[in-house]
Specification:
The chain is an alpha+beta fold and about 130 residues long. About 30% of the residues lie in helices and about 15% in strands. A hairpin with a 4-residue loop joins strand 1 (about 60-65) and strand 2 (about 70-75). The longest helix is centred in the first third of the chain and has 15 residues, at about 25-40. The protein starts with a helix and ends with a helix.
C-alpha cells in the first residue's frame, strides 16, 4: 500500500462515522414504537378480506431510524389487487398516527410472494382456514 493510501485510510475511523455508537432510541422507546406500529398496521384492512394486513402477514419488514423515520416493506395477497395503488397510502397514514414518527415510506414488494402460510393463527381462525 502506498503512503498516500495509508494516509487516506487513517482519515476516518468507524467511531467518527457513527458506527459503534449507541442507538439514539432507548430500548423502551423502541418497544413502545413497535407496539404502536403493530396497532397502527392492525387498523388497515384488505377490503376483500375481513382481516387486517398485520395478521394477514403482508408486512414484511419495518425499519425505524434513530430520527424516527419508518420504512415499511409490504406485499399484497395478489399483485393484481384492486387497491394496490391505494394500500401503501393507507399504511403510511396509519404509521404517521404513531406518536413520535417523523416520516414514513412504504414500499410494495413481491418477493417472496405472499402465501397463506404467512397469516397468523388469528387470521386463519377468522377465515376458517384451519
Amino acid at each position: 500500500m502506498t503512503e498516500a493510501a495509508e494516509s487516506q485510510e487513517s482519515l476516518f475511523s468507524l467511531d467518527d462515522m457513527g458506527a459503534n455508537q449507541p442507538s439514539a432510541l432507548a430500548q423502551d422507546e423502541l418497544t413502545r414504537l413497535t407496539d404502536e406500529l403493530i396497532a397502527a398496521f392492525k387498523t388497515v384492512y384488505d377490503p376483500e378480506i375481513p382481516v387486517d394486513i398485520y395478521e394477514l402477514g403482508l408486512i414484511y419488514r419495518v425499519d425505524v431510524s434513530d430520527d424516527r423515520d419508518v420504512v415499511v416493506d409490504m406485499t399484497l395477497t395478489a399483485p393484481g389487487c384492486p387497491v394496490a395503488g391505494e394500500m401503501p397510502g393507507w399504511v403510511k397514514e396509519a404509521v404517521l398516527t404513531v406518536k413520535g414518527v417523523r416520516d414514513c415510506e412504504v414500499n410494495l414488494v413481491f418477493e417472496p410472494p405472499w402465501e397463506s402460510s404467512k397469516m397468523s393463527d388469528e387470521a386463519k381462525l377468522q377465515l376458517n382456514m384451519f
